[in-house]
């Protein structure tokens, strides 16, 4: 039995299969070639997919399709949902990388061990105007190594700006979105009056950010 609230992705697969075939079930079997062990890694899965007479392979949010039934020709379609949110607690912080890797298997994960914030934004956090900070890494996803991290204030947005330690930040939540999916609620939580203002500042900080790039939205409070 598959329930929507415990495994929405598989629930939707079976639901759509039922709509197409009037058969409300799918058969699960091992994924391996003749005389080979079950696949364990993405490389194993793709290698087996290429060798066998299989047209489609789904891995996380990717759908891989063979083209013209040629074993060495395929392309991938990304089917990301608009956002992915992880609540932080003492039990799951060590598993953040694994959870993100399972969700975005083909995207580099780039760890963070401290935060820098423009000094005005530090004041916004302290007064409660700003409850999130948005980070971007080219060709990857920014993620935290710890829940509590050092916080430095900076004079400007520039990478080499003068900075000074002002305390620490505690992360309560991490949300991954593509830049194009940021909305007015994200802008408000980040302390801005409009989505236009938020995106303008992010483009000033990250000059090479594109609509399809991923951003990491950290829900934060000032540490003790």
Concise overview:
This protein has helices spanning 8-21, 42-51, 96-103, 119-127, 184-189, 195-205; strands at residues 56-59, 62-66, 74-78, 83-87, 108-112, 115-118, 132-135, 140-144, 148-154, 163-178, 214-222. It has 224 residues and is an alpha+beta fold. Strands 4, 6, 7, 9, 10 and 11 form a 6-stranded mixed β-sheet that branches. The chain has a 3-stranded antiparallel β-sheet with strand order 1-2-3, with helices on one face.
Describe it.
The protein has helices at 8-21, 42-51, 96-103, 119-127, 184-189, 195-205, and strands spanning 56-59, 62-66, 74-78, 83-87, 108-112, 115-118, 132-135, 140-144, 148-154, 163-178, 214-222. It has 224 residues and is α+β, with helices and mostly antiparallel strands. The strands form three sheets. Strands 4, 6, 7, 9, 10 and 11 form a six-stranded mixed sheet that branches. Strands 1-2-3 form a three-stranded antiparallel sheet, with helices on one face. The longest helix has 14 residues, at 8-21.
Percent strand: 25-35%
Globular, elongated, flat, extended or rod-shaped: what is the shape? elongated
> What is the H/E string?
HHEEEEHEEHEEEEHHE
Radius of gyration: 21 Å
Give the helix tally.
Answer: 6
- For the termini, the CA-CA separation is 46 Å
Strand-pairing-aware structural class: alpha+beta
pLDDT under 50 segments (min length 5)? none
Largest sheet: 6 strands, mixed
Q: How many strands?
A: 11
Helical fraction: 25-40%
User: Mean of residue pLDDT?
Assistant: 88
Write the layout of secondary structure elements.
Blueprint: H1 8-21, H2 42-51, E1 56-59, E2 62-66, E3 74-78, E4 83-87, H3 96-103, E5 108-112, E6 115-118, H4 119-127, E7 132-135, E8 140-144, E9 148-154, E10 163-178, H5 184-189, H6 195-205, E11 214-222
Parallel strand pairs: 5-8, 6-9
Antiparallel strand pairs: 1-2, 2-3, 4-10, 7-11, 9-10, 10-11
């Amino acid at each position: 039995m598959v329930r929507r609230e415990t495994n929405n992705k598989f629930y939707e697969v079976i639901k759509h299969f039922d709509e197409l075939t009037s058969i409300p079930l799918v058969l699960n079997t091992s994924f391996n070639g003749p005389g080979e062990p079950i696949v364990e890694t993405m490389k194993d899965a793709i290698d087996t997919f290429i060798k066998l007479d299989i047209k489609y392979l789904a891995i996380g949010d990717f759908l891989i399709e063979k083209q013209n039934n040629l074993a060495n020709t395929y392309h991938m379609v990304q089917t990301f949902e608009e956002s992915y949110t992880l609540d932080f607690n003492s039990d799951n912080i060590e598993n953040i990388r694994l959870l993100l890797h399972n969700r975005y298997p083909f995207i580099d994960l780039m760890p963070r061990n401290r935060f820098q914030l423009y000094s005005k934004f530090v004041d916004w956090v302290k007064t409660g105007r700003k409850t999130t900070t948005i980070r971007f890494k080219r060709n990857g996803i920014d993620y935290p190594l710890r829940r509590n991290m050092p916080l430095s204030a900076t004079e400007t947005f520039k990478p080499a700006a003068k900075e000074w330690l002002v305390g620490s930040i505690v992360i309560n939540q991490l949300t991954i979105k593509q830049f194009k999916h940021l909305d007015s609620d994200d802008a408000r939580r980040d302390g801005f009056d409009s989505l236009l203002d938020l995106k303008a500042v992010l483009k000033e900080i990250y000059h090479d950010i594109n609509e399809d790039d991923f951003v990491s939205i950290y829900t934060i409070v000032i540490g003790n």
